[in-house]
Amino acid sequence: MKGFEFFEPTTLAEASQLFAQEHAQLLAGGTDLVIGMKALTETPQSVISLQKIPGLDGITTEGDSISIGAMTKVREVELSSDIQNHHTALAEGASEIGSVQIRNLATIGGNIAHASPAADTVAGLLVADAQVDIASADGERSVAIDELFTGPGQTVLAPGEIITRFRLPSPASGSHYIKHKIREVMDLAFIGVAAAVNLDNGTITDARIGLAAVAPTPIRATEAENLLRGNELTAELLQQAGEAAAAVASPISDLRCSAEHRKEMVDVLTRRTLQEAVARA
Amino acid sequence: MSEYTVVGQKVARVDAVEKVTGAAQYGADVHPPGMLYGKIVRSKHAHANIRSIDTSEAEKLPGVRAIVTQDDVPSGRRVFATDKVLYLGEPLAAVAATDPDVAEEAAELVKIEYEVLPVVQDVMEAIQPSAPRLHGDATKDGPNRRGISTQIRRLSRDKENDHSDEISRLEAALEEYPDEVYYNISAESHSEAGDVEKGFAESDIVVEDTYVIPRVHQTYMEPHVSVASADSSGKITVWASTQGPFAIRSGIAGTLGIPLTQINVIGTTMGGGFGGRFGVIITHIPAVLLSQKTGRPVRVQMTREEEFIDGRPAPGCVIKIKTGATNEGHILAREALAFWDSGSVSGASIGSTIRVRGVYKIPNLKVDAYGVHTNKSGTAAYRAPGAPQAIFAGESQLDEIAERIGMDPVKFRLMNMREEGDLVPAGAEEPKVGYKETLEAVADAAGWWDREAEENQGWGVAVGDWTNGCGPGGVYVSVHEDGSVRIFHGSMDITGTDTMISQIIAEILTVPYGNVTIRRGDTDSAPYSTGSGGSVVTFTMGNTAKLAAEDAHQRILELASERLNMNVDNLELKEGAVHVVSADPPKSISLGELGAYSLSTTGGPIVGKGSFARQPSTPALAAQIAKVEVDPGTGRTRVLKLIASQDVGYAINPMAVEGQIEGGTVQGYAWAMMEEMQYGENGNVNPGFVDYRVPTSADLPTVESVIVEVPAPNGPYGAKGVGEPPITPTLATMANAVKDAIGVRVTELPIKPEKVVQALKSNGH
Q1: Using one digit for the tens of pLDDT, what is the confidence trace for A1-15?
Q2: What is the secondary structure of B614-637 as a DSSP string?
Q3: CB–CB of A183 and B693 under 8 A?
Q4: Which of A127, A250, B339, B589 has the most CB within a 10 Å radius?
Q5: Which residues of A touch B699 (CB under 8 A)?
Q6: Does the annotation mark B724 as catalytic?
Q7: Domains defined along chain B, listed by start
Q8: Do the chains contact at A180 and B634, CB–CB below 8 Å?
Q9: Which of B306, B335, B400, B724 is catalytic?
Q10: CATH node for A59-168
Q11: ipTM of the complex as predicted
C-alpha cells in the first residue's frame, strides 16, 4: 500500500471539498477500496472517511416509500423486513455480496458508487426505480439509478459529489433477484437479473427488469418490460420477454465465461425471475 | 471390542489448544530482532530474452539494504533467471529493505530490459513444430515412431545379418507418422504389458476418448515463507514453513556450498502443504542470500498472487485413452497417451499415467506419457501426485464402457477388480488388498443398490488407488521420574501425525494419552526425518515410534526386574506400572518410581530409541459415490450426497482419518467442479481467490466417511497411509454423476455451468 493522507470530516460540505481535490478517494465500508489499495490498483493521495458524518446511514419508511442512507451496511439492507417485504430483489441482492463479515462492513452506497456492472445490489435498485440523492459543496441533486452509470467504474458524479441516499418509491407487488455464479456463496456475479412486477387480476400492469454484468453498465431491459405490460404472463410471453432481455445484453467474454453464455443466461434467468416475481405478487 | 486403549481412539489432537487459541507459531509469526523484509523481483513477461538487469535505481531507495541476483549464487544453480525468462513471475532478483512497502517499491525500481518472445501455454500446441521453443530444438518420438525406431536400432545392431531391406521398410513407415515428432518435451515415460493391438482386436467394444484436466494449485492457507539469519561465524538459521526441514538443509548446502552443520532449519507450524511444501522452494535461497549480504535476519514471504504466478502447482494434462472389453464385461486392453504440462522445467509426475490401469485385471496395457514445456511455472506434488488426473481418465472411460455393455458400474468394477495374487498390469503380484470390500462398503453405505434419481439427478461412482511411501525417521522416548513420557523427533506434524505418534507410544507404555507430550526438534537437534508427505508419516513414524516405545518398554522391565528382584519373564507392564504376574498379594512398581529409580542406576535414565527406514507398503483403495442434481437451464450442479469409503488398514485415530477422507474428497470435488488456473497471452490470469474458486462449506453436504480396515502387514497396527487416497477418485466420481444426470459427458474439467449447457446443447437440448 502506498502512503496517503487520511481525513475524517464530520460534515458533508467538508467531505465534498476534500473529495473535489485530485487523487482523493472516499472510504465507506472499505471492502473494495482497501483491497484495491493493497493491490496498488488504487493509489489515492487522500482518503476521506464518511464514517463520522451523521445522518448517512439507516433505513426509514414513510408511507409507501423507503429511504436507504448511503452508509447503510449491506447486511442491514439484507435483513430489513421492510426491504425484504417490499423490495425483495434488493434484499436478495444484498444477501449475495461476499460473506456475512464483508456485508457487516460494506455499504450500499459503496456498492453502487464503485460502479461495477456486476454489483449485487444494483439490479434490485434498478427494478425498484430508485432515485439517487447526491450532495456536494454546491448543493444537492438527484438522478434516477439507471442514469447514474456511464461505464465500468464510471458514473455521472462530478468531482466532490457524494451519494447520500437511495429513495425507493412505492414498491412493486413482487420482485426477485437471481445471480448466476459457480459457488453457492462468496462468488462474483457472472450475471445478475432482477424482475419486479405489479399485477391487477393477473394482468401485469407494470414490469421492470434489471440486468447486471451484461453490459458496460447495469441496464434495464425496457423492450422486454414493454412486452409484458398489459398482458397476462403466459409461457409464450415469458419466452418472448427472455429473448427480448437477452437481445439488449451486450456482454463481454472473459475468464469467467463467454459472452454467448452470459446472453443465454439472461434469457433463462429473466424468465425465472419474472415467474417468481409474478408468483410473489 | 478393541484390545487397545489409546490407539484406535478418537483422541483430541496434541496441538488442538494452540491451534484454536491462535498460539501456534506459523512462518509469518517469526520476527527476529532487526529483521528485514525481502521481495522477489519478477518477470513481467511469460517468455522473453533479458537484455539487461539494472539495480542501480532500486539500490538508491532509502531503506534498501541489499539486492541479490544469480551472480550471488555460488553453485550456479538456477535461482534467478539471467538471460531468458520462461514464465510470468519468474524470479530475476531479490531485494531486502527495512519495510515491506519499501521492498515492494524497490522491486519495481529494478529495471529489466526484455526482448519479448512468442508464448506457448497449451501442451498440444507446444509439441507442434510451429511452437516457440523453451529449451532448444530437440524432439522426441511419439508412441508409433518410437516403436519403429526401436526396431530399426535393434536391427542395425545386428552386424552379422543384412537387414537393410527391412530397415528401409521401417524407415518408410516412420514417415507415416509426421505428427509424432514432438517438440518441447521435458521427459517421457513408457510402460507396456501384453499386446494391446491383440486385446483391442478381441474386444467387442472399444471406446476412445480424450480427457483434459487443468492445472490446479494446492491452495494451502499459508503462502510460502522463509526467515533466514546468517550470523558472523557464517552459521545460518532458517525458519521455514515446510513439509521437510532436512531436505531444505541439504538443498541450501548444495546450492550455496555451505556444510550441513552450518545450517539449522527450524520447521514452523505448517499452514497446509499438500505436497507443495517440499524441499528448497522459491523463498528459501533468496532469504539466505539476502541475510548473508546484510548480516541481518530476512523474511521472504509470498503474497497469494505470487503463489499463483510462481507457486509449484499440480500439473494439468491431456490424456487420450482407449479401452476394449467383451460384451460380458471383461476388460481386455487399455492404451493411454498423456501429455503433462510441466511448465518451464521438467517434472509433472508423468510416471503416474500408469495409474490408468486402476485396480483391474487388464491383460494388455500400453502407457506412453510425455512431459511438455510451456511458459508457466514448474509444478510440484499435490496429494497423490498425478493419480487424480490419470484416474479421472480411466474411471470416466470405465463408465462409458459399462453403459455400452449395459452393466451396472459398480458390478462392472467388482467383476474386473484384482485380488490377492492377481498380476498388476506392468507390475508385480498383488498382496492382500481390500479393493472389493472398499467398493462394496461405499455402495452399501450410499444405498447404491436401490438408488433413486429424479429428473436431472444422477449417481456416480469411482475408485482410486494409492500406496503410501516410506522413508527414514528417528524417535527418542524418555520416561521421567514422575512417570510422564516425552517424545522427541524431527518430523513435521501434518494432519495430526504428532497425535498418532503420541497414541502409539502411550499404548505401548500403557500410560494415559494425557501423560505423553511430544516435541519436534530442529535439524540441529533432532534425528533425521523424511519429509511429511506421500502418506509416509503414519507408516514411517508410526513404526519408528513403536520401535522407540518397545525399546523403552524393555528398559522399564529390566529396571523393574532389578528393583523387584524378579525375572523379567514374570513381569508385565500394564496401566502405567510393572506388575509381577500372578502375585498374591499383587505386587507392582509404577513407571514414576522406576523413572526415579533409574537415575541412580548404572544404566541410567529410561530412553528408548527407534530408527526405521523402509518396509514394503500395501496398496489402499478409496471408493466414492456422489448423487448430484444438475440445473439444465443454468448448468449449475448441486451435490446431494457424497459418500467416501477408504481402506485405511487400521485407523490409529479414526477422527483424524475421517478428517483426511473428508479433506481429500472435497479437494477432488473442487478440482472436478471449479478449480482451474487459467492462462492468457501473458501468463496466469486468475492469481487470487476471486477467480480461482475453492469451495466453501455451503457448496457441499457433509461428506460421509466409511472406514474399511484390511490390515497392512508392515504398517503400525496394520495402518496404511491415509492422506493421499481420498483425492484420487473424486474427479471421476463427480464427472460420472454429472454424466448420469444429463446423459452426456463433460470430458474437460472443471465441469463449469457453461460446459454443462454446451454439452446439453450438443446432445440436442
Answers
A1: 889 999 999 999 999
A2: ------EEEEEEEEEEE-TTT--E
A3: yes
A4: A127
A5: 183-184
A6: yes
A7: 31-117+224-301 (3.90.1170.50), 434-466+619-762 (3.30.365.10), 470-612 (3.30.365.10)
A8: yes
A9: B724
A10: 3.30.465.10
A11: 0.95
